[in-house]
Structure formats: structure tokens, C-alpha cells
Design a protein that fits this description.
Layout: H1 12-28, E1 41-42, H2 44-47, H3 49-59, E2 65-69, E3 78-84, E4 87-93, E5 99-103, E6 118-120, E7 124-125, E8 132-133, E9 139-141, E10 162-166, E11 169-173, H4 181-185, H5 187-191, E12 201-210, H6 214-220, H7 227-230, H8 235-238, E13 239-248, E14 254-260, E15 291-297, E16 301-305, E17 309-319, E18 322-331, H9 341-361, H10 364-371, E19 375-376, H11 383-396
Antiparallel strand pairs: 1-19, 2-11, 3-4, 3-6, 4-5, 7-8, 8-9, 10-11, 12-18, 13-14, 14-15, 15-16, 16-17, 17-18
């Protein structure tokens, strides 16, 4: 396991050095000599129904997915019901305070146990035939059980879904043979270990749908190439993409550190993601005050980290051309006041940034599908996009993907 020291590529000194190298490279207008030229990415991966079906069958069922902040399950009996790629899922906190995740389906004849998205209950009762389960998923009662002489109640408990936590973040994986969450996160877990995830508090959530493939949105939060053009008065006024440090990780994760503009008088802006003047009891990595830290956790998570309020964005594909965006705004410092002016300003700022990206992406799905574009060109600054596409193919399995839809497995500098 990596520890934060002066040899870590995400240590402040290493980030400072990377900023200088990137600034010099851009001044010289030079592609890094030792970095591979990235092959083009087949556009059909974004718009064709066949690739969406491959993702649904192989990707989303084989990897770890963030489904809740435990603040959504505050007390025994609290539950959250949702669908993941057509699979009905139920997370519930039992009487001992433990959280379990099950398929939201009665083991009698398949009815949904819970109809509402969230709530509090003492039992999980099927609305169809009144079969009843305790909060741990154990079948406790079925009417007229004498009519089921072969019924063994212990064999009809709710089906559990594999789950694990990173602090207060709840993940699930439908594949019992997949690597552990810790192994999946790898170096990413160490990179963000300064955040006290177990003490984070849920401030707000927001959910909304966007009419394009999930990867179009993920791409927008994987590079700064578009920042000057899409976010001239928001993101670009807070950070300087000339100073960008990029780290590609194994398992498709990525980490980005972009210097803020605090020392540029002509571009100075109040950065709501790292407000000055707040007395934080939690001290994150010093680099947090110098720039924006942003992490892509494979396959569908983006986390911009800040000392006061961090945002977790999760992308859920609803169809090949429709995505649900889930935003979790979490308080990082367990002792700081909540719902302050700064908190509200942060939420408004990120909502604005997200809307600017959505505006730029409007119609991109139809334009790509209808224009006959064969492939997308990706440059050095868009390397994260290639890294996660490569991991998508690793998870799905190259043999399952038609040749025309695969990405070339070029060697990338991963940590």
C-alpha cells in the first residue's frame, strides 16, 4: 500500500514538479516524447446498441458500483430502493445498525418488496401475498404456510448482493468472484485517504437525466481541454489548466491536480470548492489549498475533493442515449456547521458547472450517431478517456467485443 511521502507521485512536491513540466511543455507546444500517441476510439462505443448491451451484460455486473452514502440510511429500518441496470436493489439498515443490500424481490413470486425510493420500516412485507422478512432479509412469515409442505423458510431468505464500504460510501458488486473493493480501488484508496470518509456527512443529493450516453458525460469530467471554452467564467476563473498534473492508475482510475489562480490578480476568483477563512478541524493534503483535486473512480464516479464540501458524481446509464446523474454533496469536516452560505454557494457553483457541460453536450449523441463519425481523436490532455476505455474492454473481455468496437491496448504509464 502506498503511503504519502516525498516519493509518491501525488505528494505536493511531485505535483509541483509536474505543474512546471506541463507549463514548459505547453509553452514549447510539444507533445511529450515518451508518451504514446493514443489511437482513435471507435465512436460506436458511445452510440451503438450492441456496445451498450455488452456494457450491461459484462461491465456493470462485474465491477464495484457506488450506490449510497450511509447518511441516506440514518437509523434502523431506514431503506433505499433503486434499480441498477434493470436490477432491483434494496439497501436497508437492520436493528443492529448494520447495512445489508438485497435484491428488492420477494422470493415467493418475485414482487417488489419496497415500492418507495426511501423510507423507514420495521419489516419488509411483500405487497402481493404478505410474505414478510426481517431487516436482515430473513423470511419470518408466509400466510397459509401449511399449503407449502416442501417450503424451507431458511432457503427463501432474500438474496444478498455483495457490498463493501469506503467509510460512509456504500458500494455493491453483483459478481461474487470479482476482486475486493480495496483491490479494485488500489492506489486510489491511498490518494484520497486524507479524506475522513467515515465522518463525512451527507448535505444534499440531486438526481436528473441527460439525453446522451454516460461516457460523453464522464469524458467531460476527465479532461481540462474544454475548460476555457465551456466554463470561461466559472471553472476557468478558478483554475489554470496550463498547470495540470495527470496520473493514470491501474483498474481504469485517474487523478488530476490543477493549480488554482489565487496568485493571478488578473484572473483571481473566489474558488467555492476551497474557501479561505474556514477553520477546518480536518486537514487534507496541503495540495488541496493550491489547486483542484479531482478523481475518476472506475467506472462511473468523479470526485472533486475540497476541505469544506466535496461533490461525488455518479453516472447511471438508463439507455444507450440516456443517463441519470446522481450528485452527492458531502461535508468533509465532521465538526463544521452545515448549510452555511459557503455550502449553498458550493452547491450552486457545481450545479452551474454541470449545466454548462450539459449545454455543451446537448445533441452530441444524435450528432455522433447521425453524422457517420467513425472514431474520436484523443490528445495527450485526454489520456484519462483512453485509460478508462481500455479498462472497459478488460472487464468486458476482448473476445466478447467485435473487432471494430475494441480500443487498442497500448501501453500507458500507470501507477
Amino acid at each position: 500500500m502506498h503511503q504519502l511521502n516525498d516519493k509518491c507521485p501525488w505528494h505536493a512536491e511531485a505535483i509541483h514538479a509536474a505543474w512546471k513540466i506541463e507549463m514548459s511543455r505547453r509553452l514549447e507546444k510539444k507533445h511529450p516524447d515518451k508518451f504514446p500517441t493514443l489511437p482513435e476510439i471507435p465512436a460506436a462505443r458511445y452510440v451503438c446498441q450492441d456496445f451498450f448491451a455488452l456494457e450491461k451484460t459484462f461491465l456493470w455486473t462485474r465491477t464495484w458500483l457506488l450506490v449510497a452514502h450511509l447518511g441516506e440510511l440514518p437509523q434502523p429500518g431506514s431503506y433505499k430502493a433503486f434499480d441498477v441496470i434493470g436490477k432491483p436493489v434494496l439497501a436497508v439498515r437492520d436493528q443492529n445498525g448494520d447495512v445489508g443490500v438485497f435484491f428488492n424481490s420477494c422470493k415467493h413470486r418475485g414482487a417488489r418488496l419496497v415500492q418507495d425510493d426511501k423510507g423507514i420500516t420495521s419489516r419488509l412485507n411483500c405487497p402481493y401475498h404478505a410474505w414478510s422478512y426481517d431487516l436482515g432479509g430473513t423470511l419470518k412469515y408466509c400466510p397459509d404456510d401449511y399449503d407449502f409442505p416442501a417450503l424451507s423458510k431458511c432457503q427463501k431468505n432474500l438474496t444478498k448482493i455483495r457490498s463493501a464500504t469506503l467509510g460512509n460510501l456504500l458500494f455493491i458488486c453483483f459478481d461474487n468472484n470479482a476482486k475486493s473493493l480495496d483491490c479494485h480501488l488500489g492506489a486510489m484508496k491511498d490518494m484520497i485517504s486524507d479524506v475522513p470518509w467515515s465522518e463525512t456527512r451527507l448535505y444534499q443529493t440531486r438526481h436528473f437525466d441527460v439525453d446522451c450516453n454516460w461516457k460523453f458525460i464522464h469524458d467531460a469530467f476527465s479532461e481540462t481541454y474544454h475548460v476555457s471554452y465551456v466554463h470561461p467564467k466559472s471553472v476557468n476563473a478558478a483554475i489554470n489548466r496550463t498547470y495540470t498534473a495527470r496520473l493514470m492508475l491501474r483498474n481504469g482510475h485517474n487523478a488530476m491536480y490543477v493549480k488554482n489562480r489565487a496568485d493571478e490578480k488578473e484572473m483571481a476568483s473566489h474558488n467555492v470548492f476551497d474557501q479561505g477563512g474556514i477553520d477546518q478541524s480536518v486537514k487534507l493534503q496541503p495540495i488541496t489549498k493550491e489547486g483542484q483535486r479531482s478523481y475518476n473512480i472506475f467506472p462511473n464516479i468523479t470526485v472533486p475533493v475540497a476541505e469544506n464540501l466535496s461533490v461525488i458524481m455518479v453516472l447511471w446509464p438508463l439507455a444507450s442515449n440516456k443517463t441519470k446523474i446522481a450528485l452527492y454533496y458531502i461535508k468533509v469536516d465532521p465538526d463544521s456547521p452545515i448549510d452555511t452560505d459557503v455550502d449553498r454557494a458550493t452547491v450552486n457553483a457545481f450545479n452551474q458547472i454541470t449545466q454548462e457541460d450539459i449545454n455543451a453536450l446537448r445533441g452530441i449523441h444524435e450528432a455522433t450517431a447521425g453524422s457517420g463519425i467513425i472514431s474520436f481523436v484523443v490528445g495527450y490532455g485526454e489520456q484519462f478517456i483512453y485509460n478508462y476505455h481500455r479498462e472497459i474492454d478488460n472487464i468486458i473481455g476482448a473476445d466478447n467485443i467485435p473487432q471494430a468496437l475494441r480500443v487498442a491496448q497500448v501501453e500507458l504509464p500507470l501507477i
